[in-house]
Amino acid sequence: MPYSSCVYTFLCLFLLIIITTNSSSTPKTTLSYADHCSSFVPESSPVARASPPFVPNLSTSYVTGEDKLFLAVKPENETYYYYVGKSLELLIHSNYYKTIADGVYKVEGSLYIRSPYVYYDNQSDSGSYHRNFSVRERSIRFSLTGFWSENSRKLCMVGSAVDGIKTVDLDAVLKLNFASENPNIYTGVVSGTLESTRSVVNDPGYFDPISIFHFPELSNYSYSLVSEAAKSRSSDLQQDRLCSMSSFVLKMEYVGSRIELLSSCFLALSPIQCPGPEKKLRFMAKLQNSSYDHQGFGYESTLIGEASWDDKNNQLSGVACRLLYPANHSSNHAIGDCTMGLTLKYNSVWTLRNEPKAVGHIWSTKNVNDSGYFGKVNLTSFDHEDLPDLRYVYNDLDRAKKLCPVIKPKEKGSIYPDGHSYDMRFDMSFKSSKGEHIAWGYANPISVGNDLYDRNKKVVAMQSIETESVSGFKEISEPVRNTNIAPTDISYKISISLYKVKLINLFPKLNFSTKVPRRFVITAEGVYSAENGHLCMVGCGKLIMYGMNSTHTSTDCEILVKFKFASLSDKNGLIKGTIESTRNKSDPLRFEDMIIISDAYSFEMAKRSIWRMDFEITMVLIFNTLSCFFIGIQILHVKRNPEVLSRISLIMLVILCLGYMIPLWCLAKQTLFVSSDGWLEANEVVVRVITLVPFLLQIRLVQLVWSSKQSVANEKKSVFILLPMYILGCLIALLLNWARDRKYSLWDDLRSYVGLIIDGFLFPQILLNVFGGSAEKALARCFYVGTSAVRLTPHAYNQYRDYNYPTLDVNGTYYYANPSADFYSMAWDVLIPCGVIVLAVIVFLQQRNGGRWILPQRCLHLLMSE
Q1: Claim: this prediction has a pTM higher than 0.85
Q2: Which of 200, 213, 446, 817 is 20 to 30 A distant from 595 in Cα terms?
Q3: Which residues span the domain enclosing 799?
Q4: Using one digit for the tens of pLDDT, what is the confidence trace for 572-605?
Q5: Do residues 380 and 416 share a domain?
Q6: Which of 559, 578, 600 is the last residue of a domain?
Q7: Distance between CA atoms of 448 and 309, rounded to whole angstroms?
Q8: Which range is the signal sequence, renumbered to this chain (predicted)?
């Protein structure tokens, strides 16, 4: 009885704690609806449960004023965070009640407000190389009850929430105006507020009013501010193309004086609703002080408008309206005066000195003496490459041909990339004449001949690469010479990101003052010869510098660009070249010569690499299956001859376990980012399973040997010799990693060293045989010969791979003979197999002639005397 009474008491206390916890975390719902919502949606008595009417759920990021709901200062232990954007979501529950008022329903719902920041708790241990983080997304949930009016499209709800951070009850009222059933510019916006019902600012449960906006895409939207678009019979501008053309950032240049509304430097334009057949669209324009469209939403700096496309003039014309704070106006909607005109004209001709841009202006349609009037503001976009009827016009080809001498091919029979191929676009790094790394960048063709370069081409068309079954792989064909090798006119856009510390050395004569150069963009045109891979161009460069709320650009058209492409048959070829200034040394815009280096990774190489990955997965499957067979033979051998268990080196078996465990761990971390089809992903799973099987069999073998060991004296002697050797080798690997230019990380070097230890897995067995002096056949011949063959085969394959396939610096593309998993080079691929064979021969002779057969007579006498 005492026991049962204790259990009963414990259960009562447990239930009391749960009830107390729930009551403290559940918000109180004692707010009066009539006190806060009677003038918005009058309260009405429910009469019956009804089928859910159409009350739209709401999910938006256009929110202001919610900052004080969350901690303004992040906790000290949360040192990592990043901005993910604002988020507010309203979910209406399915339990609706019809009321006595026509079209009015009683509803319940939840309102979620999420913090715009995601925090990370640092959980790293001191001295650890790896840090663990837990992600924390803060949010507040309001439980709300109220009424929805179908006729007025209004929703009013009251309720409470628990902060979750300060555990304070937050009482609130939510008022929303939804878009009307026949919306236009004024009635097509969802707007409202979430306000605290507490009036005392210092009250812990008080929070600032939150304004809510949402701009949904409406199928029955009626354009009322713009006239019918001027149509052209010859126009074939697609709807999605016009939508992308209206999404960019424009620089603002004030002709007159600035006013409070238009005090920003940039206008970020984005479509709300893409055009239909009538080529009209709704847009949002955000006034901001940065060219990057990452600033938060503010209704004071946001414009909403309509625009239409004029095919004849290649122009977008529209009208923009201001937003109003939802609680400060008598009307039901949040659109203010629509007194701003907007025009954008698109320049579709791309030349060396003039890039395609959208230019236009915004102006006030009010009278000069009216409040809020402002003069014309000029608008200019940055480079915009998605314009209708875009074409490139060559203007400086004659200058390019004068500066670029004709170079005859030195090697006959070499095949170079075609001008229209993907191989013409590449990333690159830049070095100064002194060998310092000064920048990185990329080069993309603009046009080849009279055709624009197709930028949608992928590295490899995955579906076009047929991977055969395991029994037979498709033979990779060699590149075919292009019959059209006449010199081709070509233009390029080269974007260079500069290192800050190298700028002074690169532009020694240029005074940067307070502006910081960030990018160097070059437009170039010239001639490419597919006969020898030479590309020579003249270019105009823009040095883009950023200052406080401004962007400055210096243009230089005295630039010479030279590229030399590698042959398609050169598997490790490099694209080399230079970017030179042809100005005088005293000219401020002259820059030091930049040397270009880029890996030439062609389409054919990509196909060969994918074939290689498929082949390597097959190799892993085959050799892991063989390993299972060899370990199984050894297990059968020790079961038939249990007396040999004590003669097997436990250290050797542990080393082999390590050899199977490391690939399992690395496969779990490896991410597959390239594939030919589903065959590769499916076999990656099979690789993990097949790798796990020999690991488990090896563990079983270790268990059998461990349980039979009666004396570990000889094992200890082996450890005394092996441990200093392994530690010394590890220190050497560390020193080499610190002393050289690191191609691999410290972990990769240590992993390679462990791979070398695994290659010499028979060395502990040789030592144990020497100390034991036994001539028993402890290891099955099939086991140690087969395992030795499994360890030396990757080195033979590495030589074949180096000769036939391109070398990648991405470890994730290697499934067999990973360069970071062992020592691979011409020398190591000879030394390691020779060493493995020597160790196997020694074990064979020891099991035939005795374990101490290898020792000289003098050492043998000393060992016998001990």
Answers
A1: no
A2: 446
A3: 605-865
A4: 678 889 999 988 888 878 888 889 888 766 666 6
A5: no
A6: 600
A7: 30
A8: 1-25
